[in-house]
Amino acid sequence: MNKSLKEKLEATFKDIQTTVPEDSRVAVTARSDSVPTVLRFLKDLGFDHLALVSAVDWIEEDVFELCFVLTSYMQNDDEVTGREKLHVILKTRIPRERPQFKTATGIFPNAEPYEREIHELFGIDFEGHRRLTPLFLEREYEIPPFRKDFDTRKYVEDVFGNVPSVEDNK
Amino acid sequence: MDRNQITKWLKAPAKMANKYSLHAVYFCTGCGIIEVPPVITARWDAERFGVIPVATPRQANLFLITGYVSVKTLRAIIRTYEQMYEPKYTVGFGSCPINGGMYWDSYNTIKHLDKYIPIDGWIAGCMPRPEAIFVAVTHLWTLIDKGMADGYIRYRENYKYYRRNQQMALGKLEWPPLYSLDDGPEGNKQ
User: Fold this and answer.
1) Do B168 and A169 touch (CB under 8 A)?
2) From A144, which residue of chain B is nearest by alpha-carbon distance?
3) Strands B51-54, B22-25: parallel, antiparallel or unpaired by DSSP?
C-alpha cells in the first residue's frame, strides 16, 4: 500500500517529495500552496482522519514547518485488512516573517482546534479560519510563547518573580 | 473514642469536631489528582481519618491543591477558596505548588502558590504517596490543636496584599473583593 501510495502521489503531483521512513509511514513534503490539494487528494484516497496538526519552529532556517498527520478509520485498518495501519505525514514550510497559511478546516473540520492552538502558541494566521480566538492562554504575550526566540526564563522572572510574598509586607 | 482526648473534647469541642471531620473539596488540578481516588476509596480509605470529598466548596473545609497551577487554574482556585466556609484549611500537594517544581521556568505556571492564597501545609514530593496525605492530615490535626492552622485568618488580615498579588498574576479580577481593602485601624482583624 505505501509503495503504491508513493507512486500515486508522485504521479499526481510534480513538486512533492515522498519518502517511506518505515513500513507503515509515508512522509510527504509539499510546497505550501499545494497543501490543500494534497490533503483533498489524500482524503479522497481514504485517509479520512486528520489526527494532528502541529508546527515546528526552525529558527535557524527562518521557517515554520507545519505537519499534518493523516490516517484512516476503516481502510488500511489492521483489523479490516490484516495489515498495520498506515500513517501519512504531510509537511510544508512557510516563512517565519508574517506567517500565513490557508486553513484546512474546509477539508477536515476537526482541524479547527489545532489551528487555533497553533495560532495562539506560534502566531501563525490561518486564512479562512472562522474562530481564531484564544484557546488556552490567559494573558497577552509579545512573542507567542512556543516560538524559539521567546525567552521563558526572562519572562518568568519578569512576571512571576516580581510578585512579592505576602510576609514581606508585614 | 480515645479516652485520652476527653479533656480536649471538653475544652474545645468545636475545634475537635472540626479536626475529625475534614471535608475535602473535590477539586482536580495537575497530575496529583490521580493519587486521590485510591486515597478516598477502599485501598487507603481516607474516611479512617475523617476525610471525605464533597461536591461543592460550600460544604468543604479542606482544600487539597494537587499539582501544578496554571494561570487559568489559579482563578478557579481563588474563587473556590473564597467560597469555602471558615475555618478552612489548605494543603499544597506535590512540588509544583511549592515552587513550580519541574515547571519552574514555564511561561504559564504559577510558581509560589502561597503568594496568592494562604497555605497551611505542604506535602513535598513528585508524586507523594497516598500515605503522605494521611501524614499531612495528622500534622494538620496537631496544627489545628495548637491554633497554628490559621491560613483563613491570615487571608482576612492580609487580604489587601493577597488581592494585589492575584491582580498581578491574573490582571483584572472580575469578582468583588471578599473582605474590605481599606486600611482601618484594625484592618480586617476580628
Assistant:
1) no
2) B107
3) parallel
φ, ψ of residue B130 in degrees (nearest 5): -55, -30
Interface check A11 vs B, CB under 8 A: no
**Torsions phi, psi of A84, nearest 5?**
-70, 150
**Chain A residues 131-170 with a CB less than 8 Å from chain B:** 136-139, 141, 145, 150, 152-153, 155-156, 159-166, 169-170
Query: What number is the average pLDDT over the span A96-124?
Result: 92
The pLDDT score that the predictor gives to residue B62 is: 92
Q: Which residues does chain B have with pLDDT short of 50?
A: none
What is the reported pTM?
0.84
Tell me, what's the ipTM?
Answer: 0.78
Rounded distance between C-alpha atoms, residue A133 and residue A130, angstroms: 9
Q: Does B127 touch chain A (CB under 8 A)?
A: no
B72-123 pLDDT tens trace: 899 999 999 999 988 899 999 999 999 888 998 888 899 899 999 999 999 9
For residue B127, give the nearest of B6, B32, B4, B57 by alpha carbon: B32
